[in-house]
Specification:
Length: 253
């Protein structure tokens, strides 16, 4: 019987994550079956390759104060300590998996619980390091606890892996460095697509920012700094998920 790997990825945006997609592709090419459990979102979701399956679970609607805070990224630290589950609890001890992998804080928390029931080893993929100094000791301790028995962890580079080792009490030799990048690379040819599309003169240099547009990602500081840039430079911002209500205020300034 084929060996199966379960990846618990609550964020559900694997198609926008070239690093995670690449890991899944390699595992499938090596003959593993990969089940990816995620929460269902409004954006397009699909398995990244043949041999992998995306298992989506409907999100429960927040109520009371949690409903009023829903979507406020800056206030995410005061959410309920128990995150929504990607896998029904009655499946925990029925999953036929040889390895469980949890992605980020919510993923590793559930991976630990599933692994305990299924008696399978589990690992941790960290794309977002949470620092106790910022989140508070009480918020950080559960994550540290579930990382005690991991077989391995994945982080992006030597610097980030060092911070992850310190913050989560993970031995450095357990952490594998895998960059946030796609598997392939190709040489690009210089063109003026963005210049022409956005009406920017060909004599200008473009600094392209792609990713999360929010205060916590330094967007306000970046926009303020543009006033001090040389005239030959222009900033182009490409939000991660398009123009939503969290992003628009920055474009209206």
């Amino acid at each position: 019987m084929d060996k199966r790997i379960v990846i618990i990825h609550p964020e559900g945006n694997i198609l926008n994550n070239p690093s995670l997609s690449g890991m899944v592709e390699i595992l499938c090419e090596k003959g593993y079956g990969v089940d990816i459990y995620s929460l269902k979102h409004k954006f397009y979701q699909a398995a990244p390759c043949e041999g992998s399956r995306l298992m989506l679970r409907e999100q429960s609607k927040p109520s009371g104060i949690w409903a009023s805070l829903a979507g406020r990224k800056a206030l995410r630290w005061i959410r309920k300590p128990q995150a929504q589950q990607c896998i029904d609890r009655d499946l925990y001890d029925k999953l036929n998996a040889d390895l469980i992998i949890g992605v980020d804080r919510d993923g590793i928390s559930e991976a630990s619980a599933v692994a305990e029931k299924s008696r399978a080893p589990y690992g941790f993929i960290s794309f977002e390091i949470l620092f106790a100094e910022e989140t508070g000791k009480g918020f950080k301790e559960p994550e540290i606890k579930v990382c005690r028995n991991i077989s391995f962890a994945v982080c992006q580079d030597e610097l980030r892996s060092g911070h992850l080792s310190t913050e989560n009490n993970i031995r450095r030799d357990k952490i594998i460095d895998i960059p946030v990048a796609g598997r392939g690379a190709k040489r690009g040819e210089k063109n003026f697509y963005l210049h022409d599309k956005l009406g920017i003169g060909h004599d200008k240099h473009i600094a392209l920012y792609m990713g999360t547009v929010h205060n916590w990602s330094g967007t306000s500081r970046l926009l303020t700094s543009v006033n001090e840039w040389p005239d030959e430079w222009a900033l182009v911002m490409h939000p991660r998920y398009g123009m939503d209500r969290m992003v628009r205020p920055f474009y209206d300034e």
